[in-house]
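Data availability (excerpt). The following record was deposited with the supplementary files.
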Amino acid sequence: MMIRKRAKYLLGGFCGHYGACAAGVGTGVFISLITEATPLSKQEWKLSNMMTSKSLLSIANVGGPRCCKRTVFLSITEAVNFLDENFGVKININKNLRCEFSSLNKECLREKCPFYYQRSDKI
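Predicted structure:
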């Protein structure tokens, strides 16, 4: 319940209106919860901000415009790597993750997206 309380202000369109993708910020919220960070924490505060920055950098490096699936996939990948590097927690992640929803997003980056999958209906 605490994560819902902390993340309730990360609304749709957050990326364009506040300059930071909510998916990336959400990974920082996650780290702040598992480390019990507060505004007065030292190491916990640092780790939360480092996590957010890694996610946002990954999102920025791929570019835009918006695609929540892409940014969530990138953020989760960064969070999995961060957990391993900083906490020794290993989580298996599908390295061949592909999105099959490009036809539903007119702003899809297509081939420039690391998760783009062009469906072939030919048999």
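Summary of structural features: The CA atoms of residues 30 and 37 lie 10 Å apart.
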